[in-house]
Amino acid sequence: MIRKSLIAVLLVFGAASLASADTYTIDATHSNVGFAVRHMTVSKVRGSFGKFEGTVNVDPADTTKWSCDVVIQTASINTQAERRDNHLRSADFFNAEEFPTLTFKSTKVAPKGKDKFEINGDLTMRGVTKPVTLEAEILGSMQDSKGNKRLGFSATTTIDRMDYGVSWNKTLDTGGLVVGHDVDITLEIEAVWENTEASTE
Hints:
Layout: H1 4-13, E1 22-26, E2 32-39, E3 43-49, E4 52-58, E5 67-73, E6 77-78, H2 82-89, E7 101-111, E8 116-125, E9 128-143, E10 149-160, E11 179-193, H3 196-199
Antiparallel strand pairs: 1-4, 1-11, 2-3, 2-11, 3-6, 4-5, 5-7, 7-8, 8-9, 9-10, 10-11
């Protein structure tokens, strides 16, 4: 059964969109790629990546045909601490010089209730590719004053950084670890399909 959110998408996009999928470009200025990881077992350090790009393919007639593809520049990591960020860019962590990008490419999108989706895909980090599942939620869709179609959604997942060879750590005197293994990833994405006919008028 088509959910109310998808009906809204159909109304905004128009019947002409049903003929084929539309490719949306991620609007990085209105999106965020963030993460959080345990520090010394007592708190979480949060950060984000400032440079990323990607596309979202939307077929209003069949949500199972939706897909997304994201490329993130590892050197753009920002945790609000220059010394820590430089360490994260080094071979101890992301090794940004040898592996300048992280990538995510979806393999399957499945509806999971009202406004909810499950996005399965492959995450590649430091040359290692592993399957991950993101829990996603549609935030809304609209057509702006220029005739561009916009779609927003949030997505979250948790990965074990050790699976990708991001294995640096130190053991505390109390027995805990300086950096946790689990990394919570949060995506806040706004993507736009540009109405080229309107923009050239």
